Amino acid sequence: MLDVSDSAKPLSQGLCGRRAAFFAAANVLAGSVMLLWPRGSVVFSGITDASQTEARYQKRPADDADAVTRLEPRTTEADNGSLLLLPSANSNGSVSGVPVSSTSSSSSLSSDAGGTKTTSSTAPGQLQSQPPEQKQKPKQKGAGGARTPKPAQKGVLGPPGPGAQVAGLQLQGHHPGPGCPSPAASSAAAEHVAVLAIGQGRAFLRRFKLQKNKFLDKLGDKAKAYLDSQGLFSVFASQQRNVLTPLADLGFSADYLLCVDSMKDGPMPSEVTEAWAFSAKNQGHRIKNCIKLVLSREERCSPLKYGFIVRLRPDLLVLSALPDPRNARKSGCMLARLRAASGIAGLTNEHLSYGYCDTGCCSRALRGSDPGYIVDDMVAIATRELFFRLWGGKKQGPAPKSWPRMKPMSESGLTTGMLEKGVPVCPLALRCLPMGSLQADGHAVGAAKCGYAAGAPALPQTHCGPAKITAEEVRLLTPYSTDILAGGSEGGHQQQQ
Q1: pTM to 2 decimals?
Q2: 408, 55 in Cβ contact below 8 A?
């Protein structure tokens, strides 16, 4: 869930409908969330018509990276804010005429037992990071109460050199990782998967303290014991166990690529293939810029090419194994959880991103009698082509007027954008919780009621309104998708407008 729907005050799990809207309105008055949105219009990061009213979320003046606002028009964007062409990178790492010095290099910092930092050079085209500041004794408070700034943490890359860019972006930090795979590995039979962790870096590497963790306290002792038994001592540990390991077991070659606002929790694990830190206007803007960086990496590491994209939040605690991405290709759809649904049979709480211990698909939050859904924006699996269709394609037409509606939030706008671009959705069964969310306590309290994070059985959703379609037929609801669904077992279904 993007932070636009997060609240500084935890929400109880039952807030799927009107009470959730009430608290959202309270947040508007409190200033933690600002939603200025006429009823019936939705927009997500420029996916939909730019003339629609914007939904703004102002969290901190210093970084509104996850705010949902319309992207500013650029020469590479259509009038509706959609990217027409994703720029391709040159062999030296530049993108569309943006120069990158071929002689620059980046250094990864490591610490030995004594705290001495060492560096190792990397391939041309990467960035040279500035060394962290030397430790200084803190000065006494002056008349203004100021203190000497804290030195950089051990093992954390500093900002790139002045003017250094990758894919046209001014990076604030760069972790080059192991570099490019060998040409033989890049062209091997194993399919390549890009696991894109995109968002704010909070809680990404922070280790759990089982006895002193507010989020885990609200999940309960059974959940703590389960996490401990599974070796899930950090968010990244959960993603390594339940995302990277299943992909490897399925025969994929997976690269973990991190696009965040900053890197400040410690040295990067060896499993992180490459990481970039940069500022962004909003989450959609960060995703599109992350795509540019991934394309730049592909060009730099040719013949490397990612056939599947797994996008998730860096703060997502993943509690079950990722399904086979080939299911996305077979069905011709994007695998994603649902924020709310109505008229759909065969769903469980593992298909939902809220209402974990309810049985009503959060359908009380929806307006309308037709079957449909609001998609979750925390995690998704798609083929390369379908992922770029969503984030780089053109609008194919309007969303169905009869589609179930929800109060304005980021997921509503994302759903509208997917319908307008003809991106079919198949419900994804994956247990996960956003630990770094401003609404994390509400997720934890709700998940604790039925052992969602403690290995309890999946909970069938039996009160989602009159069943009109099955979970397997959800993909057929998307208009303008005949060309995509042609690869599946059935053709697309054009809903009546």
Answers
A1: 0.71
A2: yes
Q: Which residues pair with 110 in a beta bridge?
A: 118
Host H or E run for residue 237: helix 235-239
pLDDT band at 155 (very low <50, low <70, confident <90, very high): very low
Comparing CA positions, the residue from 365, 263, 450 lying closest to residue 5 is 365
Q: Residue 46 and residue 391: Cα distance in Å, rounded?
A: 10
**How do strand 169-170 and strand 165-166 relate by DSSP bridges?**
antiparallel
Distance CA 239, CA 243 (A): 5
Q: Which of 347, 348, 334 is nearest to 450 (CA)?
A: 348
Q: At what angle do helices 384-392 and 283-300 cross, to 10 degrees?
A: 130
CB 104 within 8 A of CB 161: yes
DSSP bridge partners of 95: 89, 98
Which of 487, 285, 471, 491 lies closest to 385 in space, CA to CA? 487
Band of pLDDT at residue 212, cut at 50, 70 and 90: confident
Which range among 72-76, 114-118, 261-265, 449-453 has the greatest average pLDDT?
449-453
Burial class of residue 212, CB neighbours in 10 A (0-12, 13-18, 19+): exposed
What is the distance between the alpha carbons of residues 324 and 426, in angstroms, rounded to a whole number?
A: 13
- State the chain's mean pLDDT as an integer: 74
Give the percent of the chain with pLDDT over 70.
Answer: 65
So what's the pLDDT on residue 260? 94
Please confirm whether the linkage preceding 434 is cis (ω < 30° from 0): no
Tokens of 296: 């730049």
